[in-house]
Amino acid sequence: MISVVLIWGINFSVIKLALNSFAPLAFNALRFSLATAVMLAVMRWRREHLGVPRRDLVLLIVLGLAGHTGYQVLFINGLARSTPANTALIMATAPLFVALYGQVLGIERISRVAWGGICLSFLGILLVIGGGAKGIEIGKESSLGDLLILGAAMLWAAYTTGSKPLLVRHSPVKVTTVSMLAGTLPLVLISMPQLASQDWQAVSPGGWAAVLYSALFSVAVGYVAWYTSVQRVGNARTAVYSNATPIVAILVGWLVLGDRLSLLQILGVAVVLLGIMLTRRGRAR
Fold first, then answer.
1. Which of 3, 139, 146, 280 is the most exposed place for a label (fewest CB within 10 A)?
2. What is the number of alpha carbons within 13 Å of residue 150 lying toward its C-beta?
3. 110: helix, coil or strand?
4. What is the per-residue pLDDT across 138-180, written as a single tens digit (0 to 9) for each?
5. Which of 74, 121, 76, 113 is nearest to 96 (CA)?
6. Alpha-carbon distance 21 to 55, whole Å?
7. Are 131 and 265 in contact (CB under 8 A)?
């Protein structure tokens, strides 16, 4: 999960670079198509087949529509209407939804210590985002975008929670590949207007490099590693690591773009890390 946090934290700047050359949905459709092709090649190399029982296939299709179609559409359109600060803050609520879904469905019991760690890491995110130069912006102009991002966070939490029973019977690679097949096809169909109007000759070499990084590392490697963590340590402990992703994104911006960190943001980083440690220690037996 530390590797996932690093990959996804860097990917924030990578996507920013790519969107200078690509329309948002065109970029998403392209990187997910490439990532799906890579995962199919990995399945063939591992000599795994795509076949799953009908009861699992239905759930995998639902997961694909939630985690690859719905989530990506809501996230990209929400970010376009809101601010990066609001987006990072709202997406940080995903671990809370994961814990809530797991508790309600009886998939995973969360101890009081783990709940405390989850809430503490969320408090750290408040400090990280609120301690920035622009802080948190709330207003009518960003309200629609904020609601879309909240929906994205809820879908990502459902995607994470729903995978747990499947990972008892299937490998993370198979769950990732089949769910990506189910989700990428509708994503490409939704993105057809932007794909058709995309100026492909205007795409810079950096833009193509961004597609490769985002497809191979952020999607293919990141999703398999995420599912592997869910399989081994559970939904809540996996999801709480995502709270560290905005921290990596801020640090990358500081190193590459020269953005300065405030003392409040540094304190927030420490609080997030403490929350992750508590969540790991508080895993229910």
1. 139
2. 6
3. strand
4. 455 456 777 888 889 889 888 888 887 888 888 888 988 999 9
5. 121
6. 41
7. yes
User: Which residues have a Cβ under 8 Å from the Cβ of 106 and sit 6 or more positions away?
Assistant: none
CB 282 within 8 A of CB 237: no
**CA–CA distance, 234 with 251 (Å, rounded to integer):** 28
pTM beyond 0.90: no
Burial group, residue 80, by CB count within 10 angstroms (0-12, 13-18, 19+):
exposed
Burial of 260 (0-12, 13-18, 19+ CB in 10 A): exposed
9 vs 23: CA distance, rounded Å: 21
Domain boundaries, the chain: 2-281
Residues in the chain: 285
